[in-house]
Amino acid sequence: MLDETDSRLLAAVQSNAQLTAQELGELLNLSASQAARRRARLEADGIITGYAARLSPGKLGLSVQAFVQVQMAAHSPEAAKGFLRLIATLPEVVACWTLTGDADYLLRVWCADLPALNDLIHQRLLPNPAVARVQSQIVMAQPKPDAGLPV
Prior knowledge:
Layout lengths: L3 H12 L5 H8 L3 H13 L19 E9 L4 H12 L4 E6 L6 E7 L2 H12 L5 E8 L13
Helix pairs in contact: 2-3
């Protein structure tokens, strides 16, 4: 069961995962050791699952973000496993979801440019025998950046 202090701690580390126990304690009105124990408990309970750095796509040469909907030709477990094995080999695919509705999968991809996106779709995704159709939407702007979960 999470209390208000746990929720505040989670919001704080989502905003800045590099907070020291001292800084976290000051934000929560706790001692550094109490803050560290709470964070350790939330990690042990699997509520905090890890820490990551947010990188600048532009500074890494990635200028095109797109969402790619994939409709499968077959819905067998083997086809799904084969498709997911392919997705695991594609570093451009940064997230993958299964969906209800017309598309079976939604991929979030980052590419250097439009020719790279075209190559990903036409040379890597569409040749997969399990894939029937691909539809992409190119992101023009992202007015709200990726955010943490509501806590």
